[in-house]
Specification:
single chain, 119 residues, mainly alpha, 5 helices, 0% strand
């Protein structure tokens, strides 16, 4: 199981994704062409969460029955590839951190919910 500790570590992995899964990279690059930085960051964060869930499922199955099911292994590999592909897109757009993006976006949504569209 690959453990990624920082956003920069994800970006280094993404150079291999173009070789191992070029169809996924092409699909995500086309899809992201009209997206904002916030949308790309949201897709990356979702992919990271899904990859984490898949890694936990794999680790649990391996600890319980000493072997993960094929379906779990495929999910784990797919979501790791998805993280790498979205990370590559984020790197190409020069998004180097998710920190500021979500804080600003959440505050805008909170203001609109709290005070209406006139804010």
């Amino acid at each position: 199981m690959q453990i990624i500790s920082a956003f920069d570590d994800i970006a280094r992995v993404s150079t291999g994704i173009s070789v191992t899964n070029p169809a996924m990279v092409a699909r995500i690059q086309i899809q992201s062409a009209s997206m904002s930085d916030y949308e790309i960051a949201a897709h990356l964060a979702n992919a990271i969460a899904s990859a984490t869930d898949a890694a936990h499922a794999r680790a649990w199955e391996e600890s319980q029955v000493s072997e993960a099911r094929a379906e779990t292994l495929v999910d784990h590999e797919y979501f790791e590839d998805l993280v790498a592909a979205w990370s590559m897109v984020a790197t190409q757009r020069e998004i180097d951190s998710l920190d500021g993006l979500f804080i600003e976006e959440m505050s805008v949504h909170w203001l609109h919910e709290r005070f209406g569209a006139g804010v």
